[in-house]
Amino acid sequence: MLLIKVGGGKQINWDGVCQDIRQLSQEEKIIVVHGASVQRDEIAARLSIPVKTVVSPSGISSVYTDEEALDVFLMAYPGLVNKQIVARMHQHGINAVGLCGVDGKLWQAKAKKDLLVKEGNKVKLLKDNRTGRVEKINTELINLLLEHDYIPVICPPSLSFESEIVNTDNDWAVAVMAEALHIRKVVFLFEAPGLLRDHLNKDSVISHIEKEKLDEFLEFAHKRMKKKILGAKRAVEGGVEAIYWGDGRRETPVKDALNGKGTVIS
Amino acid sequence: MLLIKVGGGKQINWDGVCQDIRQLSQEEKIIVVHGASVQRDEIAARLSIPVKTVVSPSGISSVYTDEEALDVFLMAYPGLVNKQIVARMHQHGINAVGLCGVDGKLWQAKAKKDLLVKEGNKVKLLKDNRTGRVEKINTELINLLLEHDYIPVICPPSLSFESEIVNTDNDWAVAVMAEALHIRKVVFLFEAPGLLRDHLNKDSVISHIEKEKLDEFLEFAHKRMKKKILGAKRAVEGGVEAIYWGDGRRETPVKDALNGKGTVIS
To answer: Could you tell me the pTM of the whole model?
Structure first.
């Protein structure tokens, strides 16, 4: 079983991704997870809702989700983007079904209502935070679809244990899902050639990382790549044997990633 | 099996609907279809995208869907509204899974790219119309979910036979779905007590309509109720034995409709 996470950038070559999935799905079951951050930001801007970013006390930045931001999130992720991807897949002959973590409690998360954030040198408490961390997967629903030859196309948000909608980190959810479904190979596609030793030099791709040594590479991780490394660590802890970070803008993005054209963690 | 279509108004008592569904689902399988027209219009207004209405040569008005309008539709229907309904159902202990017609080709539609519309006394041809009419249902996917005790919560848009996303009339889709699944009872909830003999007098509810005589009631149908009558006719032709039009604002909206508190077509 292959889990493919595709980032939310606008330059992702979705036709290429679909062609690869169509081919690879002849040989193994495939699950797709996707982002939609760029469209989320665009809709927020058009609605004049600022996207608020916060920094955790340990220095990791993320988007702050209040109720208004969650509405925009729902418009972009399971609405506009998920359904456009699903339709595109059907155009390529892929029998896709789009779901978000809320559906059938696909992704259940521990809500984190109070959030500690760093503002300059101070640490502040934010209330009414609508995020959480995925802890439980409805594997029965995913397997049901896979057994009947559907390809699940999944995105956040998730459902909290109190049945409220919460935004959750996608890479973390992918790691938890990989563990729950005993998946050994995970592909992550984004708009970069892989993990770069120098984020300004696209020729500095780190082609291989020993999976036990992920921590050592945190220093090379620029901005949101830090989260990717934490997600990868979690995936390795959950039993994933190989993680392929690849460039979603290439002609055959999934195959190239699997062929080691990006960064392989194994 | 009971099919419940809930309109897209903001005054629908969703907690009441959920409580009824929770109870009724102990005895029979339930499928929910919903609208989201009010939220669609709100998002369109906030994005400064005017909702364009057109009138067919036979005098039936409907929303004109171009590509921009379809994007808004996706934000509202399978995005914001579907997921909020699904989460609400989980809060009431209902194991809901939200899908739109695009997912797994759930609702396949014949696209209608060219549209004849009446403007004053003239008939004009509009191109690039993104609507269609539902003709084919993926009953396998719906039955798969029902057999595993999920309640499907379905909304438009649909997938055309060319795998493009198209807006489709909800009441018509409900009728085609009822036929494909051999459903005998369909409940329609909206923000009115039923079909009114005089649309300005809420005490003029027509409590019963013989299903063979639906045509005679077209004259009482105000605005969008015309489409409901055409949808009901299609449902009756497809084998539906009883249609219950009821007020979604009541305390127990589904049960009241089934108990004949609105308009019963049988």
So the answer is: 0.96
